[in-house]
Amino acid sequence: MKIEKVSFISEGMKISGILHIPDEKNPPCVIASHGLLSSKDSEKYIALGEQISREGIAMLRFDFRGIGESEGTEEDNTVSKKIADLSAAIDFIRSYPGLGNRIGLLGSSLGGFLSLKRASMDKMIRGVVIWATPLHMDDLGSKKQEEDYPLPPEVFFEDLPRHRLLPLLPKVSNCLVIHGEKDELVPLEQALGIFNSLSPPKEIHVIGGADHRLLDPVHRQRAIDLSVDWFKKYL
Fold this sequence. Notes:
The structure is a single chain. The chain is α/β, with parallel strands linked by helices. The protein has a single domain, classed as Rossmann fold. It has six helices and eight strands; from the N terminus they run E-E-E-H-E-H-E-H-E-H-E-H-E-H. It has helices at 43-54, 79-95, 110-119, 154-159, 188-197, 217-234; strands at 2-10, 13-21, 29-33, 58-62, 103-108, 125-131, 175-180, 202-207. An eight-stranded mixed β-sheet has the order 1-2-4-3-5-6-7-8, with helices on both faces. The longest helix has 18 residues, at 217-234. The protein starts with a strand and ends with a helix.
């Protein structure tokens, strides 16, 4: 296995990523999308990249524009621009030597929302796994925000009405929904709404007692194990 720092261009901006590459020849690849307040260097994405590459699957984790090591500013924090970045990541993997024939998407929270939206546009995506993902974000701006969960910029909310997930979900199959029973940000009902609208094959796993971030190491490892097994099955 090896880990490689990579970059690619999305609408003229440099996007930075980390590619976990297994020893196997021509492996499938999972592209991981982080959430609104996260980055490619989240502990759960590092752990997932390490485990999934040991199982013979490559993984790309990257920073959306305006986050971490990628170019951009706070004003680039919109769903439309994140979809463009994810599309550029898919194009990058499809052009990367030895990768690109079998691609899956994984995302947590907003990253899951983006993964579902992008998968609905691309029949070549073979599998999707989402963690703690909202069906909609209509009430995001009205919620009392804790210090740990600041609101995104106004431009995010101006762009948001362009992106309705529910009508697109029947176009997505081979999807695993993972959600914490005690998710404090995204109600479990939203996960059930996503699951019910997906096309089969599909599965949902509710992790008892788990919060939005899967902070408990046992809960996080359960999500990682389920995700790896799903991708081994469908990629």
